[in-house]
Amino acid sequence: MKLVTVGLNHKTAPLEIREKLAFTPEKLKEGLRRLMENPSTEESMILSTCNRVEVYSATAHPSKTIAEIKHFLSGFHQISPQELAPHFYHHVHFDAVLHGFRVASGLDSMVLGESQILGQMKEAYQLASEGGTTGPFLNRYLHRVFNVAKKIRTETEIATRPVSVSYVAVQLAKRIFGSLEGRKALLIGAGKMSELASRHLKGQGISEIWVTNRSFDRAQEIAKSCEGHAVHFNDFLLSLPLVDVVITSTAAEGFVLQSEQIHEAMHLRKNRPMFIIDIAVPRNVDPSIHRIFNVYLYNLDDLQSVVEMNQKERVLEAQKAEGLIVREAQGFIEGLKTLSVAPTIQRLSKKLDQIRRLELEKALGRLKNLNPDEREIFEACTLAIVNKILHEPMLALKTQPPESAPSNELTYIEIIQKLFRLDEVIE
Amino acid sequence: MNPILTPISLLIYAIAALLYLIQLVFQKRTFLVFGQRLVILAFLLQGIGFAIHIAQVGYPFLLDSSDSYLFSAWVLAGLFILICLKYRFQVAGALFLPAILVLYTLAHFSQENYLGNTGLANSPWASIHIVFGFLSFSIFFLSFILGVLFLFQELQLKRKKIWRIFDKLPSLDVLDQLHYKALSVGFVLLSLGIITGAAWAKSVKGVYFFDDPRQLWSIIAWLVYAFFFQVRFSAGWKGRRGVLLSLMGFMVILFTFLEVRHV
Fold first, then answer.
1. Across B96-122, average pLDDT
2. Out of A154, A273, A302, closest to residue B172 by CB
3. Positive/negative CA dihedral, A103, A105, A108, A113
């Protein structure tokens, strides 16, 4: 049994193609059903996000399955195969295993190391397993996928540094203040940016938000939406000494905040640190303010350059992750080879023993006047029956070398797992 | 001090120091975890060494400078472990562990017996004074390290560059608070050290002074720190200025403890 992956992503296909190929959750169930009609496909899962559509299948006939999946994708979405062909990639066995690990860890994502994809993959797996299209192979594989993704996140720092301007700003604020719980903020300017910032700050636990704007009505609007206070533009200097974070985003020409004003505010707040974020273009805050003690002024370019630094760090961390992932994929393939006589036997006998006990209990419940000796004989008898039945299949399992089955046939292990539905016994 | 446990604990601290330093380059979390365990192990061994020492010599104890420096190293290790429990501080091991090694080195080279031949041990104040003195030394050392970390963090924010090795430092606020708290405790201990020192002199010599420059240095250090608290509250010298001032104070503390007799 081998893993194959067929699909396309943001690197191989433009948005027009990706959106045509995307599955809504309802379509996805329907798609899985149709996919399983292909004779060579044993198990399947469809991963559909805005950046990628991929099918993961377990099969004994990789090349046949790949062709069938491509055919299915174009047929299902009614796009001509010729149009899609140049955008598809496919991976078999080791490469497919590796690919899934990379995708789940965010190494194949547009924003390197992002974590959303892991959640999307979990959802895709859940849908497939609800639809009954996964089996022992994909179950085993996806559990490993989720483990590997988690491992990459804890053992490398691929996701620790933020790579968006707003998260960089929040992280800088935390570098200064620790937590933002209970801190106060002032928004100067009441545009779209300011509205976004207010929501962001609220989410980080900022306790009070003041909003000021040349047009007071607009300030009131935003203040209302974030449960803050509106301040008249002529009076906002009064609130300056009270706030820890200032965000400026007015369309004003010339500086709204001058050096002397901050000097005075800092004096009044006894030099407690102040973080000023100037996201206006042209700038609203005199850059020399950054030189004042305990004042930290960042403009849009500064934030952007931190973002770039963090991106470089992520690339470095991604290299570490790639190495880890190759080792994990090798481990997984090794594990498949010995997949695995011992656990199969264990699960098989466990399952039969469960059945035996259940039936025994029922029978003993009805045969109330047995003496202890008779009960024992009865129990031994059921045990002997199960063991005798198991004897031959167990022998066959143990004597068949793991790779002896011709590549397009199922091994005994796979047959037994299928016949007895052993994937359901895993606790 | 214990002839077996002291070198063993030194060796473990040295390995831990190495791990913390290597970690700065390779950024491997396992190094931090392992380093942390080693520090705890060495701390425990050293603690047992102290218990044995005190049981053997009885009161008064810590009567030579070598033992006192080892005691300081032990307290510093304990403080590091404590802080790591509460804050993301493991990275700071790259400063703490070398500091502990420096104290071990001082212990090795300074062999002064505080009692000399003068029978100073007759006073019950001897060990009390020494314990207060070296406790304050450890805590000032701690606040010195915290101050240095604060400066690193503040430099990053002012330069608008985040360096890899300082990425994991606690926030400015936490560092400032801890630095301040450590200084407050150190200041109280230093005051007690000065007072008990004077009491010791009085009980042995009948006057409040030894002819020892350390008394003078410790009073200068006390004044520097007193000035620190004064400007922190009145002039709002929080942050970098206050930290720079406290680093100056620590320099004076070093003079005091390094027995600068001939300046």
1. 79
2. A273
3. positive
Sequence length of chain A is 427
CA dist., res. A189 & res. B134, Å (int): 55
- 3-state SS class at A40: coil
Q: Which of A114-123, A220-229, B175-184, B231-240 shows the lowest mean pLDDT across its residues?
A: B231-240
Contact A239, A231 (CB under 8 A): yes
Distance from CA of B228 to the nearest CA of A (A): 15
Give backbone dihedrals phi and psi of A409, rounded to 5 degrees, phi first: -120, 155
Nearest to B239 among A273, A298, A305 (CB): A273
**What is the per-residue pLDDT across B7-35, written as a single tens digit (0 to 9) for each?**
999 999 999 999 999 988 887 778 888 99
Pairs of residues, one from chain A and one from chain B, whose beta carbons lie less than 8 Å apart: 56
Q: Does B24 touch chain A (CB under 8 A)?
A: no
A1: tokens are 């049994």
Please tell me the distance in Å from B8's CA to the nearest CA on chain A.
32
The DSSP element (H or E) to which A6 belongs, if any, is strand A2-9
Q: Which residues of B182-215 are buried (b: 16+ CB within 10 A; e: fewer)?
A: bbebbbebbbbbbebbbbbbeebeeeeebeeebb
For residue A74, give the 3-state DSSP assignment. helix
Catalytic residue among A50, A196, A358, A385: A50
Question: Could A178 and B157 be called an inter-chain contact, meaning their C-beta atoms sit closer than 8 Å?
Answer: no
> How high is the pLDDT of residue B106?
87
Chain A touched by B238 (CB under 8 Å) = yes
- Is the preceding omega at residue B124 within 30 degrees of 0, hence cis? no
**Amino acid identity, position B57:** V
DSSP codes of every residue in A336-382: HHTTTHHHHHHHHHHHHHHHHHHHHHHHHHH-TT--HHHHHHHHHHH
CA–CA dist B134, B190 (Å, integer): 9
pTM exceeds 0.90 for this model: no
| B25 contacts chain A (CB < 8 A) | no
pLDDT at residue number B120:
63
Verify whether the Cβ–Cβ distance A176 to B240 is below 8 Å: no
Residues of chain A under the 70 pLDDT cut:
337-340, 343, 400-410, 423-427
Q: What angle, rounded to 10 degrees, do the helices at A116-130 and A136-155 form?
A: 170
Look over chain B and give the mean of its residue pLDDT values, rounded to a whole number. Answer: 87
Instruction: Judge whether B164 is closer than 8 Å to chain A, CB to CB.
Output: yes
Contact A294 B240 (CB under 8 A): yes
Pure H helices in B27-92: 29-57, 65-86
Residue B36: its pLDDT value, please? 92
Secondary structure class of A186 (helix, strand, coil): strand
Of residues A155, A175, A267, nearest to B153 (C-beta): A175
Axis-axis angle for helices A192-203, A216-225 (nearest 10): 30
A133-160: pLDDT as tens digits: 998 889 989 999 999 999 999 888 888 8
Name the amino acid, one letter, at A189: G
CA dihedral over B241, B243, B244, B249, signed as positive or negative: positive
In this predicted structure, what is the pLDDT of residue A420?
A: 83
Give the pLDDT of residue B115.
64
